[in-house]
Design a protein that fits this description.
This protein is mainly alpha-helical. The protein has 19 helices and 2 strands. A hairpin with a 2-residue loop joins strand 1 (114-115) and strand 2. Helix 7 (120-150) runs antiparallel to helix 16 (340-373) and helix 15 packs antiparallel against helix 16 (340-373). It is globular, with a radius of gyration of 22 Å.
Length: 480
């Protein structure tokens, strides 16, 4: 069986300020009974909203809207599948984490064959994250473009000078905001951002039928014909890799579950019935948290796709390059008038900014854990861990900004990251089934229909992932 983390923490000296409990250590003194009512479980949600803030940004605002603009309503079915099939894998990975008190990257290390001190999946994650750096640079670029249109600091809006200045300002501000590395700040910022933009986007999508860009049952029926129009397979693959919960977000979710306290409150596995009862209770909280995050992602993704298909597609407007923000703003100006461009820009800043906050908060944690697995640092040393996270919180966003200033195409950068995430997703599916069989007691695996759902989810991910890889390589599944 996998090892369980049971490190102890030295008590603070008399008169000294006690350090908060290490969220990555399981101690008997930190256990807490799980809530037994729905209202009680709602009060302990959080990681799912942090994840939603990271997801509802580059994928939904940029790629999903771009796909709707390019394909019309034809790929609406893929939006539903993309957001729906992945949550079961996410839930299973989080279940393993809560029961074992270990991060996903630590679990991946068990999936052979090993290459050095870690597994091939860990190395694949490292490669995928380098591709994701382009995506995060695109997020910074999109946010900078919105600010540049609102307040062009130097030269014309969207000029290189204005974009560069805003990119540096945005990066510096976000890094400063998250320099403490504390989970509580991340959760508060993400929840506020998600609430604001979810309501705004859903309201616009539902209001379109009352404008000249209305849609009805015919368009929605076309959207569920389960076809991929010619010329959209590449964008569809990127959307499947980015929208909904991607492989990197599934991995990150285990860290947020640990830092929220689900595993720590469950406590170390001492084989007792009390521990089993607590585990079952906190797993119920986690499942509700996953469902809440899924609802936010699905509502926003569908809204963005419908908006792109209804407003941009009839006008042959596809967001590209640094003019992406200007093109997307047509969604608002064409339906509500020129004044609405400012409302859109503020909204775009909110949604892209929330994604940037999620990335700046999570990626340094994953890289710090990776350095620990490689033996570069001691992950179990709280001071070393926090110091490394803070250093990477400064360094990594700076690298993403440099990438944007070099490439200067937010849509392309986000699509590159999406393809990398789609490939890594296949490896995560393999890892989840292996960890489920070795690290999850059968009594915690849930009912049979949950196993069926996980199987269907895994099969859909594998099928679409293989289809996308073959399409990128120019190999037709039909032989034509």
């Amino acid at each position: 069986m996998p090892k369980t983390t049971t490190r102890t923490t030295t008590s603070a000296a008399p008169g000294a300020t006690a350090e908060p409990p290490d969220p990555y250590a399981l101690r008997a003194e930190d256990v807490r009974e799980a809530p037994t009512t729905f209202a009680g479980r709602l009060r302990h949600l959080g990681p799912g909203f942090v994840l939603s803030a990271a997801v509802v940004g580059s994928g939904e605002l940029i790629v999903t809207t771009s796909l709707g603009a390019k394909a019309g309503f034809a790929l609406l079915w893929l939006v539903v599948i993309s957001t729906g099939v992945k949550v079961w894998v996410q839930m299973e990975l989080a279940r393993w984490t809560i029961l074992n008190g270990r991060t996903a990257l630590d679990g991946y290390r068990e999936i052979g064959p090993r290459v050095g001190p870690v597994s091939w999946i860990n190395w694949l994650w490292i490669g995928m994250d380098f591709a994701k750096m382009f995506q995060r640079g695109g997020i910074i670029g999109g946010t900078a473009a919105a600010f540049s249109i609102l307040w062009p600091i130097t030269g014309e809006p969207l000029s290189y000078q204005s974009l560069a200045v805003w990119a540096v300002i945005i990066t510096a501000f976000t890094v400063t905001l998250l320099s403490t590395g504390r989970y509580g700040m991340v959760e508060r910022l993400c929840v506020a951002s998600v609430v604001v933009f979810t309501l705004a986007t859903l309201g616009l999508a539902l209001g379109l039928p009352m404008t000249e860009f209305g849609y009805g049952s015919a368009e929605l029926g076309e959207g569920f014909s389960f076809l991929i129009p010619v010329g959209t397979a590449g964008v569809a693959l990127a959307m499947f890799g980015i929208t909904g919960v991607g492989a990197d977000e599934m991995t990150t979710y285990t860290y947020w579950c640990l830092e929220k306290g689900y595993a720590r409150w469950t406590g170390p596995d001492d084989g007792s019935e009390d521990r089993a009862r607590r585990a079952a209770g906190w797993l119920k909280v986690m499942r509700l948290d996953v469902a809440a995050g899924w609802l936010v992602c699905t509502v926003c993704t569908l809204s963005f796709y419908v908006i792109g298909a209804a407003v941009l597609h009839p006008q042959n407007l596809v967001p590209e390059g640094n003019s992406m923000i200007t093109t997307l703003s047509r969604i608002y100006t064409d339906t509500m008038g020129p004044w609405a461009e400012y409302a859109f820009l503020v909204g775009a800043i909110t949604v892209l900014g929330s994604t940037l906050i999620g990335s700046v908060a999570s990626v340094p944690r994953l890289w710090t854990n990776t350095l620990g697995l490689l033996g570069v640092i001691d992950w179990s040393d709280v001071r070393v861990r926090l110091r490394t996270i803070r250093i990477l919180t400064f360094c990594l966003p700076a690298a993403w900004t440099v990438l944007f200033l070099f490439v200067q195409s937010p849509v392309l950068m986000v699509q590159i990251g999406g393809i990398g995430g789609g490939v890594f997703l296949l490896a995560v599916v393999i890892a989840v089934w292996r960890l489920r069989s070795t690290g999850v007691d059968p009594r915690f695996r849930g009912s049979g229909w949950l196993t069926v759902a996980l199987g269907v989810s895994s099969a859909a991910i594998v099928f679409l992932g293989v289809y996308g890889v073959l399409d990128v390589l120019g190999i037709s599944l039909t032989g034509s």
